[in-house]
Write a structure and sequence with these properties.
Elements: H1 2-12, H2 26-59, H3 64-104, H4 108-135
Helix pairs in contact: 2-3, 3-4
Length: about 140
């Protein structure tokens, strides 16, 4: 999916005077932080739906209800995990930018506090993702 997004980005920015390389653009970071975890989720969703609709009933002669007991929780857990990865990526980027600004201003104490808050937020996000994953 990334080569297609790079071509679309090049096509959209071709008319502008300045040329920004795809790997250094904000769209690339947005794509990397959001679509990479979701791409795995979509692949898993397709695989589960193939097992649900085609492989299970037709090839393995399994009832759809027994497959649904396996695939639906798997899809729910994978959605929670992919969403947690997206949120962790956003948090990491946000706190890294704030810490860099604090470091450039010479405020090392605030920078260390921001890094600590970032770590606490990451741990809280992981704990919440584990709880939501266990509930689904």
């Amino acid at each position: 999916l990334e080569p297609a997004m790079a071509k679309v980005y090049d096509w959209l920015t071709a008319n502008k005077g300045e040329k920004v390389v795809w790997r250094s653009s904000k769209m690339y970071f947005l794509f990397r932080d959001i679509f990479e975890p979701m791409e795995g989720l979509l692949l898993l969703c397709v695989a589960c739906r193939m097992v649900d609709g085609v492989i299970g009933p037709l090839l393995l002669q399994l009832p759809p209800a027994s497959l649904a007991r396996f695939t639906h929780p798997l899809l729910s857990v994978s959605l929670v995990v992919a969403s947690a990865f997206v949120l962790l990526n956003w948090q990491r980027r946000f706190f890294a930018e704030l810490a860099f600004k604090q470091e450039m201003e010479g405020q090392t104490m605030q920078q260390q506090r921001l890094e600590a808050v970032g770590h606490v937020m990451a741990v809280a996000t992981v704990i919440i993702a584990i709880i939501l994953g266990l509930q689904s």
